[in-house]
Amino acid sequence: MFLRxxxxxxxxxxxxxxxxxxxxxxxxxxxxxxxxxRYPRDYDDRSSFxxxxxxxxxxxxxxxxxxxxxxWFGFAxxxxxxxxxxxxxxxxxxxxxxxxxxxQSLPIGARAVVTGKFQYRYGDIQSSxxxxxxxxxxxxxxxxxxxVYPLTExxxxxxxxxxxxxxxxxxxxxxxxxxxxxxxERHGIxxxxxxxxxxxxxxxxxxxEEARRSLIFEELFYFQVAIARRAMxxxxxxxxxxxxxGLLKSRLVERLPFELTADQVKTSxxxxxxxxxxxPMSRLLQGDVGSGKTLVAFLACLDAIEAGGQAAFMAPTExxxxxxxxxxxxxxxxxxxxxxxLSGNVDDAARPPLLAALREGRIDLVLGTQxxxxxxxxxxxxxxxxxxxxxxxxVLQRLALGRKGSLPDLLMMTATPIPRTLALTVFGxxxxxxxxxxxxxxxxxxxxxxxxxxxxxxxxxxxxxxxxGRQAYFVYPLIGExxxxxxxxxxxxxxxxxxxxxxxxxxxxxxxxxxxxxxRRAMDDFVAGRTRILVATSVVEVGVDVPNAAAMVVEHAERxxxxxxxxxxxxxxxxxxxxxxFLVYADGLTADAKARLKAMLASxxxxxxxxxxxxxxGPGELAGTAQSGxxxxxxxxxxxxxxxxxxxxxxxxxxxxxxxxxxxxxNAVLREVLERANPFADAPVGQG
Length: 688
Ligand code: ADP
Ligand code: MG
Fold this sequence. Notes:
alpha/beta, CATH 2.40.50.140, Rossmann fold, 7-stranded parallel β-sheet, binds adenosine-5'-diphosphate, binds magnesium ion
């Protein structure tokens, strides 16, 4: 649609010179297509006029007026223009602070649409905060509903409107229709040209709805085509499946000091079933913090190994990867599983033999960070890739997954539940397994909110726990001092807690700026109980598992997101004794911060909290999606537009299944969507 015809620089539009082009570039707009695809962020409904005379009773005036007079007041740089205007109800003054140019653009006798707040001052009805749009030729001002665009310095709303209008008149007709007509008819989708024009300059509210729905449908449809293509390729792929009897698994289960929970058994069976199918597995295992996902993943690894393959287990941080490696050493090595650890920090001497062992198949299970999937790492037969806390990974790592040998089975794990609609959009072809129950005997963590100033009481309470032999985390938003923010930080508080508050208990400090060696020591000391207090930043947020820890104190809790707070609280309550979480907050909470803290108090259920988080933050900013950029949609929002998504999805799958030719069709929209959706859409399959 856009690429060739409308891919020209914005400078082809009349009135766009170098300086305007530069300003547009700051908004990420360089071509005509960019301009047309920059949909309004909002609309200003001016469909009903409010005359000047109603200024006192109405929030704002919105009228068509004539310029009667210009007058200047003040001196030198303070010189300010006053424009007297008149509509059928009366006259008023526009006070044009910093807008001397209005003298030229609104000459006496001109007619204009004026919108703004007016007050009675110095004997006149006046306004200094108004928008004015001259009525003439190509002015956009007459439209009843006006688009509101994101702006940048030196670019006015009116200017932006005129540019888009121009782009629409000069180039809009060249927009080609690419959605199959039958599909459009079935769902009442407007022709693309019309949808585009009405999304920018809607004739009325209903038309705007129609236009937006059409564009949203189109975008989600192509997105789902990308997902469907991927699903098809997976379905057609064949993985050799030597028979597996689950012997290694049974041996591990026998050796465990506890029974698997019912949900661990269930999810583990779902995974085993997938791993018996001819196509590769693509499964998301979700379960709240502490629900025992690691063990389920290890069971899957054992099946892969028993079948003669290798397994790779990736964690988002070195800290967590090391912890998993230690657990694997404890649980799996006794079964004869050959283990290795690989991260960016494995030193140069140790590296080559390790890589050779992986290449030659002398290692069964390798645990590590994203280094596991870097260019230099080759596997003899990678059968299963486990990705822990997958919501923390960007696209690239997942892309890299696709390149390693034949298609491996993929098991992603997350403690941040993904709403079904999002799972559908992003992971169209991903199966989901859920652990809902916790291991038995867990007591839910008791949570207290404490206002800053009262933390001494918290410290005293924690002293009691420490004296009883338990351990505690203290978490801070900053590592060290900050010039801009006056917040408690981990370094200073570690010092204070060590010398003043708890001189009787050994204390460790961990944060991301420490050397890896130091980090490892700090963590090991805490795990082994050599230190009783661990002062930290949010590096301890994910995965860390120390069952003897009974207190989590988060200071400046108002600075943490809800998902982070829930993860932090999940560090305690891992044993059978009662654990506590203290959220210490500062004065002057924002409404959102207050809502987050309240939610933490109200629930310990990760699924409920994830929903609450969504409500507080609003759709479109789901955990990890916006930031990691794997959903770059221009107008659709998979949560808000869930219903359209489902329709678009079933159409896309039906079409791709019926007409595989679409897989290679030279369809510009599809290509563009794929480009945007990539590397996500075609990874990790299809390149193996
Ligand atoms: P997460 O799902 O957050 O990754 P982990 O896998 O870290 O949870 O497990 C949390 C803790 O629960 C670990 O100490 C683990 O050994 C323990 N655990 C796992 N499964 C069970 C079970 N069935 N019964 C008792 N404890 C279990
Ligand atoms: Mg975990």
